Structures are given as structure tokens and as C-alpha cells.
Amino acid sequence: MSTSSTRRLIWIYGRHTHCQRAARNLLRDCKTSSIAWLDVPGAHARRQLGQTRQAGVIDAHQGLDPDEFGAVSGAIIGGGALIMMTPAPANWLSITDSYPPPWLSDGLVSTDLNTGFIKRLIRHLQTAPFVEVMNADQPFERTPIAAIKPDPQPQPDKAIPNAEQQVVIDAITQLPKRRAPSVIFISADRGRGKSAALGMAIKTLKNDSIRVSGPSRAALASVAAHAGAAMPEFLPPEHIQPHHSLLMIDEAAALPLGVIHQCLNGNPHCVLTGTVHGYEGSGRGLTLRLAKALEQQGVDLIRLSLHQPLRFPAHDPLEQFTDQLLLLRAEPPAINPQFRSGPIRIQIEAAASLANHEQRLEPVFAHLVAAHYQTRPRDLRQLLDDPEIIIHSAWLDDQVVGVSISRPEGGFSATLTEQIYRGERRPAGHLIAQSLTFHAGISQAAMQKGLRIQRIAVHPDQRRCGIGLALIAAARELAVSKKLDWLGTSFGASAELLDFWQQTGLKCVRVGNRLDPRSGSHAVIMLEGLSQAGRALFTDARHRLAVHLPDQAEHSLARWPQEQIRHLMQDLPSPQPADIDRLDLHTFATGQRRLLDSHGALKRWLAQSGAASRLSSRQQQLLRTAVANPLDTASITTAAGTAGWREALAELRKSIQQGLSISDE
């Protein structure tokens, strides 16, 4: 058992300079290099992965990113402390964030934010008995708080594994001997020594061919410290290639699912670690998703877990406070069997009400955590503070069994819409409006108003019971009542998800050319027109998909399951490329439209127009190369005779513009 001291949470409030002075006084016995001082919201969270700290300071005077609270609290050792510096409670709610959160939609500013998350945080700080509170504006003698005295830490190179870690080390050292392709997944909460176990396994193996990867080099600090001289060179995830040697990926839950699948491809012996309830992603959720994929590939999945805290004692109050504040352990409650077939009630949840009622907030957020393994604490703040979020909940008797999150999009001016169309602006938070305008090439799409269903989550025991359809019907009813033009969604496509969404009345209007790193698949946009203008937009988008999808299938979607492409093509209108090609070529030549979005138009123009023959031989070769393989940017750059891809793309646009001018003569 751990003999570490419990960790502390010290809340210092008042004037900024007073808080800073008080915090530095409390930190006088800590090593400066072992203090995480987080003063710019959103800038530091990922840097805490794999780190060990004597103390952490979160300066919330300019704003607060909940990810940072989760990150630094898990890095602090026994006897250490997390210091929260905030404005005075009476003033905090009236002070706006200097750094707007990344999820804030275009056109909104910090003053538009709700204050539910901060209100809830203040309530937790005021009611948790272990929190030490200091009013920095009062003389220090009135609120004496002892200086932070972190526990001494053993040298990593002299660390002795506990029983749980030894099981992990033994499994890793035996993995290369297995004949069947196998993946070991090690899950644990923060501070349980999973990274240390990887390092000790590397030290035991002493094998030069081991490859080690993770979200960043810094995130592997603990692995490196325990591996010592045996630590291999860090390999970025994007550089991992198929190989027979052992591959280790620490903190895999912090990586997008698509990246993980690419890393595992062609690597028969892999070790992954993930935090069970981490700010960076849920190892539990990742395990469930990996298990299904690996089973289909015939790969053995070996699950191991670590439970005993090493960095701090069991039942540590700071860990319990963090879990409660950020709802990291929230799980959908068990469903009473006698109510499983009862009527479903859908209602809209007010964010302010959720912030004030934990018994309602927890099951709502738990469904989102269960449905997406990379749900993060900042998603909780968005749920409570984003003024545009619309929350629908599905109730079976007195229990939440489903949740959907929607947000309005579009309604832009003609000027901004033109800028989006030309690729000069990309308004945050308007995924469908922006993509249909820029990628699909529908010049006025962003002027229309719609409702995007951003996330939908149904209780694991109540799936395929019509709850998801009921939530979507409620979103549709709301969109109609607000006189919106369309209802839509976007997601990483899979056969299962496409089948579900096609039952809802929405149809595919756009398939992305690039793999979505979060899902490992191509993103699709599905839409339903609600108004006359929305139905016209839907029809236009379907006609464009009929032209674009066959071209995409030859290149960007060549590895996508062909049965899915055929399924999407089944009820599309007959392709009429003439007018669409003309617009696609013009916006590519004169704007920022992407090559993959214009490839089909370029191919047909080159085959049918005599104008290209009047260009220079280099220009003709450049066009032929771009048509032959639009994904091969290196070959296109060589054909253009330029130093880089950006210059090559400019040459390609110039050549097409010149060719179009010849065609118009």
C-alpha cells in the first residue's frame, strides 16, 4: 500500500497580484522545476501528460479550462497541493474570460457565455471540507495556511515494481513470443504507475528494436525515467510503419481513434496504455472500441489494469474532488428492468438547471462520456456555458436513457458567405454551413439557417429501442418551430451509423476526402430540408454529390468499403456535371478551393477542352500529373518545378485560370 501523504487543494481568491504573492509564499519549499504554473487557459493541459509535479497552480483570473484542472491534479504527488487562484467569489461571475474557449461559435464573445460551470465550481470549493481557503486581500496572519511540503520521491532508476506492475511487466516481456497478433491494453487511473511499468519493461527487455510512441515526447517522461539508458528514441505516431518489432504507445486514449488504428496496422505486437477516467480521454471507452475492431481483424486483446495508487494514497481527497467536479467517473445508471419497455418522454434541459442539480447533470453527462471515449472536462463546461447548445434528454420513468446535443448554424451575410465560398473564412462552430459552401461548392448555403445534431447518446441497455429516433424527431420539431431551413448532422461514417441515420429521414449530401482522425473514417454530412429554401439546398447538394462521389471513389475514397459507396449512390439523381464543373474549376482557379474537391471537374475539362493544348508543355504536364493522382503532392510539386506544395498549388491554379481564359476566347 502507498505510504504517501494526502494531497491538498488550496483556494486563494482576491486581487491577482495578492493571489500570486500568496501562492509563491506557499510554494517556497517546492522545486521550481516541479511546479506546474498554468496561467493561460487551454495552453498547458497536454503538457501535463506523463509528468510528476510537487505542486500545481491554476490561475483562473483570465479564464478557466477544465482540462487543465484534470491534467495537473493527476500529476501532483503525495504531500503536494493544487492551488486555485481566482477572483473573489462575489466578483468572479462578472469577470469574462480573456481567452475565449475553443468551442465558442463564430460571432460570439466571452461575455455571451453562461456562468453555470463557474457557479458549480464555486459551490464545490465552498462545500468541500478539505479545501483550504485564503482571502489574499486580507493580511496573511488572518488566514494562515501551512507551506506545501511534498513527499520525497524515490529515484526512478531504483524503483521496485509492486505486484500489479510486475504482472504488466511479465505480460509485456512475453508478448514478442506470442505467435498470434496481440495487443496488450493497460488501463489505470492517474498515478497508478502504468507509464513506470512500461519503462521498467523496456529496461527488462533491453531490446534495441522496441519502438515507443505517445501523444508527445514530453508525455513519455515517466517511461523514459524508468527505462533509463534502455529508452528508445521517441517515435511520433504519424511516423509509425508496419514492423514485427514490439510497439508501445503510452497514453493512447489521448490520440484519435483513427490514428490508433493506423498505428496498429501491420504491427503484430503492441502495448497501449490509457487512463480510465482521464481528462485526455477514457481508456475504458477506447478499450470497448478497440475490442470490436481487433476482433474483426483476428487480433487477440489482452486487458490489464492497475488499481493501487503510487503517487498518492488511496481515497485521496483531491482525486475524489476532481472526479466529482469534472464527472470523470460518471456512468449511465442501471435501468430498472420493470420500466425498460415504458413510454419515452423527451424534454429540453436548461443548462442553468443542470448546473444547479447534480442528480440531473450527472446522468446527462454520463451518457456523453459513455458514447464517446474522448469526452473531456471542457465538454462539461461547454454543456453548461455555451449559450447556443440545445440539450434534449430522453426519460424512461424517472431515469435518463438518452441525450442529444444540437446547435444552430448558418444565417451569414452575403459578404461573409462569399468569403467562405472562396476559402477566405472558416467560421468556427458552423461545420455544415461552412462545408456545403466551401467543399461542396454551393455558393449561398451558409446564408441559410439550420440545426446540426452534434452528438447523440443512448443508454447501452436501451439501444435499438427507438430512443435515438425520438431524440432526432424532437430536434426536427424544434427546428421547424424556429423556422429553420434544414436539420443535419456530421459524423465519421460506418455501416452501422449510416444505417441508423438513413432511418431518420436525413440523406447524405457530402463525403469528406480526408480521413477524420477522431473516428478513423471519412466524415459524412447528412441533411433534411425543412423549408422551401432548405429543400432547394438539399436538392442542390444531392446533385453535387452525384457528380463528386464517383470521382472521389477513384482516389480519396479508394480504400473506403465499396459497398458503402454503392449504397450511398443508389438513390442519387443522375449526374449532370456541366454547370457544376464550370463553377468548381472557376473557384479552384480564382479562390482557395481544394484540388480533391475539384479533381473530377479538372479531369473532364482536360479531356474535353482543347484549351489545355495551347498551354506550355510544363503546364500540360502539371495538369496531367494532378489528374492522374491528386493525392500525390510530391509528384505534383515536381511537375510544377516548385520548392513546395503551396507554390505548386499556386502554379496549378494559374495554369487552369489561363486555360479557362483561352476557352472563353
Report on the structure:
Helix 20 packs across helix 21. This protein has a 7-stranded mixed β-sheet, with helices on both faces. The chain has a 5-stranded parallel β-sheet with strand order 2-3-4-1-5, sandwiched between helices. It is globular, with a radius of gyration of 27 Å. The model has no long low-confidence stretch (mean pLDDT 91). With 665 residues, it is of the alpha/beta class. It is built from 24 helices and 17 strands.
CATH class of the largest domain: Alpha Beta
Structural class: alpha/beta
Number of helices: 24
Return the average pLDDT rounded to an integer: 91
Q: Major beta sheet, specifics?
A: 7 strands, mixed
Q: What is the general shape?
A: globular
Distance between the termini: 84 Å
What is the number of independent domains? Answer: 4
Looking at the structure, the CATH topology of the largest domain is Aminopeptidase
Strand content: 15-25%
State the fourth-level CATH superfamily of the largest domain.
Gcn5-related N-acetyltransferase (GNAT)
- Alpha carbon gyration radius: 27 Å
CATH architecture of the largest domain: 3-Layer(aba) Sandwich
Describe the strand arrangement of the main beta sheet, using strand numbers.
11-12-13-14-15-17-16
In helices, the fraction of residues equals 40-55%
Structure in a nutshell:
By secondary structure, the chain is an alpha/beta fold. It is built from 24 helices and 17 strands. The chain has a seven-stranded mixed β-sheet, with helices on both faces. Strands 2-3-4-1-5 form a five-stranded parallel β-sheet, sandwiched between helices.
